[in-house]
Design brief:
With 166 residues, this protein is mainly alpha-helical. Helices cover 78% and strands 0% of the residues.
């Protein structure tokens, strides 16, 4: 039985190989928008597909960030609509929500944004931050920093490993 995420990654890799050179960064950006692939995985897809590493990193990070920005803006509007209608934020506490809020109080927006990719896709972390009332521009700024750091860092490590193996 095949893994859907593996199939998706292989599909993006095949697509990068099949499209003209000018379109390849767009495919990498689209892959960067997919949770669990994100910037790190998309950059690898691009590099394996023959795209220059700098172009692959930029395309992957931009695709990831655009998706995160859309998630943040939509979540912000939904939160505003719900809190306006109810008059106050709902206080339903699930175990998962409590865990997130504990991490948020301990690390703040910067810490949750920078450490979040170790546990969750950036889209999920961004939505959780926004739903707790963190201003959208603050979430987007810290998610941009996290995406840039993680995508660049993982790509540099991968390139180093590729050079070692060669």
């Amino acid at each position: 039985m095949s893994n859907p995420l593996t199939d998706l990654v292989l599909g993006f890799q095949g697509l990068v190989a099949d499209v003209p050179t000018l379109v390849q960064p767009l495919i990498v950006a689209a892959a960067g928008a997919v949770p669990f692939i994100e910037g790190e995985g998309a950059a690898a897809i691009g590099i394996i597909g023959g795209i220059h590493p700098l172009v692959a990193v930029l395309a992957a990070a931009i695709g990831n960030l655009l998706c995160v920005a859309i998630v943040v803006l939509v979540t912000s509007r939904v939160r505003a609509a719900v809190t306006t209608r109810r008059g106050a934020p709902a206080k339903t506490q699930t175990a998962r929500r409590e865990k997130f809020e504990k991490a948020y109080h301990r690390y703040g927006t910067p810490g949750v944004s920078l450490l979040g990719p170790l546990l969750l896709p950036t889209q999920f972390t961004a939505a959780a931050l926004t739903s707790t009332g963190v201003p959208p521009l603050r979430v987007i700024a810290w998610q941009a920093a996290a995406i840039a750091l993680w995508t660049t860092g993982v790509t540099l490590i991968a390139l180093g490993l590729i050079r070692l193996a060669a």
